């Protein structure tokens, strides 16, 4: 378990690189809301967007998660507790006025970065031009 990084994982670094290439600046490994003891991987303070890069195993990805065969009960409870904590985090941050975005580690970093960029810098509505 000591080998599992809590920050600067390969998926995080790839996503941050893509976000940086799009001209976005952000904070890393910070609590969006001081009173909520949850640390987001990437935080856009002005836009109030918190991004979490979730590992497929640790957060129970519906596409890639495979239950452990050894000590199965312990691990299934652990993963379920992680899922519940993720849902609680989403709810607490939303209640504080933050938008939470979750990216799975298997997602294409370029596509995820574009999705995040659209949320951070929404395109302005087209203005009607009168003749």
From TrEMBL:
CDD domains: Vsr
Keyword Nucleus: no
Keyword DNA repair in annotation: yes
Record-given protein name: Very short patch repair endonuclease
InterPro entries, alphabetized: DNA_mismatch_endonuc_vsr, Restrct_endonuc-II-like
Species of the source: Catenulispora pinistramenti
GO molecular function: endonuclease activity
The entry's keywords: DNA damage, DNA repair, Endonuclease, Hydrolase, Nuclease
Family: Belongs to the Vsr family.
């Amino acid at each position: 378990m000591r080998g599992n990084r809590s920050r600067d994982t390969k998926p995080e670094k790839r996503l941050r690189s893509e976000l940086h290439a799009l001209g976005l600046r952000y904070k890393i490994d910070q609590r969006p809301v001081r009173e909520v003891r949850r640390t987001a991987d990437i935080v856009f303070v002005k836009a109030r967007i918190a991004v979490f890069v979730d590992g497929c195993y640790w957060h129970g990805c519906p596409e890639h998660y495979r239950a452990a065969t050894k000590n199965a009960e312990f691990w299934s409870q652990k993963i379920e507790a992680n899922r519940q904590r993720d849902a609680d985090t989403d709810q607490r941050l939303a209640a504080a006025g933050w938008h939470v975005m979750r990216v799975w580690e298997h997602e294409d970093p370029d596509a995820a970065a574009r999705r995040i960029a659209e949320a951070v810098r929404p395109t302005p509505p087209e203005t009607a031009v009168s003749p």
